[in-house]
Structure formats: C-alpha cells, structure tokens
C-alpha cells in the first residue's frame, strides 16, 4: 500500500490517548529540539515515525508507538523528510 497520511489521520490514530501519551514523552525525551538539524527555537515541531506509518502498520506497536521509531523534528525537517519519503515510495510503483 502506498503511503497515505490522510488515511492514517482519518483512522483516529493521532487523537488516540495512547498516541498522545507517547507523543508527549518523545517531546520531553528530545528536549523540544529537532533531532535532525538541532534547532531548538522552531515555532512548530512534529513527532515523526522514522519508519513511515501507513494503514498496514498503524496497529503494529513496534512501528506506531515504539520510542525507538520516533523522533522530534522541526516543521521544516519534517516537511523535507515527508517529501523524500513520498518520492521514494512513488519510485517503487514505476
């Protein structure tokens, strides 16, 4: 299945209490500092799945909730990573 963030979003995953608890833990663990570029002054951060989350793995604890698969990124780094991931996935289907 191709990556589709909207499908995961509409599944209710990001409003689930378990996700919100893990998300808050990652923010504290990473000290509100981007783990890619080191920015600690960004206005917006995202807790990102290193292995992309999709409808096939959204219920797999090792991917969805495992702190080893999560890191805090500033908005700009998260946007760049998302574009790279999408381009990589698109190439798999050509």
UniProtKB/TrEMBL annotation:
**For this UniProt entry, which segments traverse the membrane?**
none
- Does Nuclease count among this protein's keywords? yes
| UniProt xrefs under InterPro entries | HNH (IPR002711), HNH_nuc (IPR003615)
Entry-linked SMART domains: HNHc (SM00507)
Q: Which UniProt keywords apply?
A: Endonuclease, Hydrolase, Nuclease
**In the UniProt record, does the keyword Hydrolase occur?**
yes
Q: Which GO terms describe its molecular function?
A: endonuclease activity; nucleic acid binding; zinc ion binding
HNH nuclease domain residues are 21-79
Domain of life (superkingdom): Bacteria
Query: What is the protein's given name?
Result: HNH endonuclease
Organism equals Lactococcus lactis subsp. lactis (Streptococcus lactis)
């Amino acid at each position: 299945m191709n990556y589709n963030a909207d499908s995961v979003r509409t599944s209710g995953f990001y409003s689930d209490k378990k996700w919100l608890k893990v998300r808050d833990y990652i923010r504290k663990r990473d000290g509100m500092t981007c783990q890619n570029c080191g920015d600690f002054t960004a206005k917006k951060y995202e807790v990102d799945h290193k292995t992309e989350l999709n409808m096939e793995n959204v219920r797999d604890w090792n991917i969805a909730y495992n702190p080893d698969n999560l890191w805090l990124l500033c908005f700009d780094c998260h946007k760049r990573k998302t574009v790279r991931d999408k381009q990589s996935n698109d190439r798999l289907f050509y």
